[in-house]
Amino acid sequence: MILLDGKKTSADLKVEIAESVKQIKAKGGKTPHLAAILVGTDGASMTYVNAKVKACELVGFNSTLVDLPEETSEETLLNEIKKLNNNEDIDGFIVQLPLPKHIDEQKVLMAVNPDKDVDGFHPTNVGRMALDLPSFLPATPYGILELLERYKVETSGKNVVVIGRSHIVGRPMSILMSQKRPAGDATVTVAHSRTKNLKELTLKADIIVAALGIPEFLTGDMVKEGVTIIDVGITRVNDTSKKRGYRLAGDVDFATVSPKSAFITPVPGGVGPMTIAMLMKNTLLACERKN
């Protein structure tokens, strides 16, 4: 069993990105600049945004944080997006999700200039991705592809089951892995809450991407020997034996699944760190395209 180490891989990627930035600066080029909009005080969102700011410092990017209170109106938020769209110095920006309930998430994502949409959520980028045209890939699926490639996991002609059909992970993952690419050329099945024969499907799968947000859902009796497991989920589970009163669990029951796996991502330290690294990669790409 080989651990797909997202922590190490993302650190390697950041070193590579920092080297590219150094070369750009040496030639008198523009320093990549990533901005983030945070609305409210959601704990997980604040942690993510802080990690993104730290990653920017590490790779030599400029970063801007637009920190707005929970009660910010949709109109005010759209105005902030307009400012970032029009700011020539900003290469890419993200609007941290989830947004407060009174704001229409779809309307907000549509307002982002697709050329600055380094999260890869704008319909223009999603459409270009589906047509296999140059686009910004959503950071989490992009990170999974990178892990599969760097660990030389064979995907061509393999049976892949993606559990979960979200626009952020499940659906783009299914499209990308069916395309002609190094971590692609697979036969992909998308399973979800209405899938009847899930265990039947997972037992035939060579690769399983679990992205449904239910802790320890995928168990050892649902997978075959030699399977590759990508665990996207991360949930706080109450655990009185831990000092902080909880532990972080993925969508996969690691204890029963890992003994049967050829490759598996740990939680934490698997897919999570890759997401931020790929956001950096998309920002570098945005800067290079523009300049």
Q: If you had to describe this structure to a student in words, what would you say it looks like?
A:
- The protein has ten helices and eleven strands.
- The protein is α/β, with parallel strands linked by helices.
- It folds into two domains: 27-113, Rossmann fold (3-Layer(aba) Sandwich); 139-271, Rossmann fold.
- It has a six-stranded parallel sheet with strand order 1-11-8-7-5-6, with helices on both faces. Strands 3-2-4 form a three-stranded parallel sheet, sandwiched between helices.
- Strand 5, helix 7 and strand 6 (187-191) form a beta-alpha-beta unit.
- Helix 1 (6-26) packs parallel to helix 10 (271-290), helix 6 (139-150) packs across helix 7 (170-178) and helix 6 packs across helix 10.
- The longest helix has 21 residues, at 6-26.
Second-tier CATH architecture of the largest domain: 3-Layer(aba) Sandwich
Distance between the termini: 44 Å
CATH class of the largest domain: Alpha Beta
Overall shape? globular
Strand order of the largest sheet: 1-11-8-7-5-6
In percent, how much strand structure appears in the residues? 15-25%
What summary fits the major beta sheet?
A: 6 strands, parallel
> H/E series, N to C?
EHEHEHEHHHEHEHEEEEHEH
Q: What is the number of helical segments per DSSP (H or I, 4+ residues)? A: 10
CA gyration radius, whole angstroms: 19 Å
Portion of residues within helices: 40-55%
Number of extended strands: 11
What is the CATH H-level superfamily of the largest domain? NAD(P)-binding Rossmann-like Domain
Number of domains: 2
Average predicted confidence as pLDDT = 96
In the CATH hierarchy, the third-tier topology of the largest domain is known as Rossmann fold
